[in-house]
Design goal:
Length: 444
Amino acid sequence: MADTDPTGPVMDRDEVDRALARLGAEHEAIETSLLALQDHAGRRLLEGARLTGLTEQRWSATEASITLLWAYFDAYTDAIRTARDIRARRRWSSREDLVELTELLRGEAVTVPGSATAAAHAQTPDAASGRLSERYSLAALVNRMNELYAASLDMVVAADAVWSALPARIDLLAAELQRTSRLAHSVGVRPGEHPAGDDLERITRTLTRLREQVVSDPLAFWKPAEGSSAPGGGRPDTTVYDREARALEDVRREIDAVLTVRQDAEKRIVRLRDLLSRADRTLAEARTARGEVLAKIAATEVPVVSGPPTALQEQLSTAAEYRRHAQWHRLSPLLESLEQKAEDELLRARESLTAVTAPLAVRAELRGRLDAYKAKAARHGCAEDPELVERYEKARRMLWSAPCDLRAAEQAVLRYQWSVMESLGVSPRVPGQGLPGEGRGQGA
């Protein structure tokens, strides 16, 4: 009957001894693993923590699995002890002993009371069926324990990894946040008054909430590794932490900029005063030049010169007021805007002066050209030619009289220029155009 048993042929004494040796080694390894799980820091933290969310659900199932693991292990231990006792009855085991050992070592001879699984609330088909007991072979029981152990260890390691990584980093960031907040307050960056102050307040709320969530529900911040079946395969999810760290870094840069303003404010305000003063003087010079041009140059459109930059002066006074009251967060953007506007204002004033004095520059160029051609005529001995003298004097009277008609004076200078060239035997160019290569200071 034993030969036809589902467990297979009856084991001999050597097979029994080898099986018991193997089971003993497995028992020792399983016990070591269970004790390590029992002493795991993550498991102890989970037992004492007030959990919420996903972690609370999974820890409830994991606690049941650990309880069931020990129940399985106790049944496994009892089965091995019973097998060893049977083997120890006689030096040479009888046929009946070998049949009993074969059934125990290979058959479904291990019974786990249903009360153990029910008490553990294990989520297994057997437990759900409400059976009074469960029967396993030793091999099946080892496989079942390995499955429960891997799932339990995975949960414990994941929670411990999040707790080991995130709270400490959050605390460090919170300490940096406090230092930044104190520094921001010292330079007037406060919530409701400056965007950076609002950002600091938001980051503070987010970090406080994040730490509470990480402590109570660490598994909500765990990313399992794709394709990995090893317990604890994955990494903490630091997405929220990283975002707030970047936001704090941006705020720090803004605070640094405000601190730079506090250190350089006086120098920058003095430079702004100088720029606006130079622009004002240039505009005053342009207004004076415009009056001179209108008096000395006829039939010429002279652009109107605007007044001094009073709006910028008012903003500069506001900047000085901000500095006196240490309102650095307001001074910083105002100075940046003023510096660009002051540069633009000085450039505009210089362009206005250039546009206003353009007619005077044209008159000066014509005077220089007239004198240059007179000198050329004198070098070639024809300066006393009556026609040249007449044309020279006519052009000179036009250029040195006020108001000066620039168009008529330019034509008079050109006629004198052509006459000089004809006297030197050079054919003049098309009327209305100067000769190539000729201009103020032209030599022979």
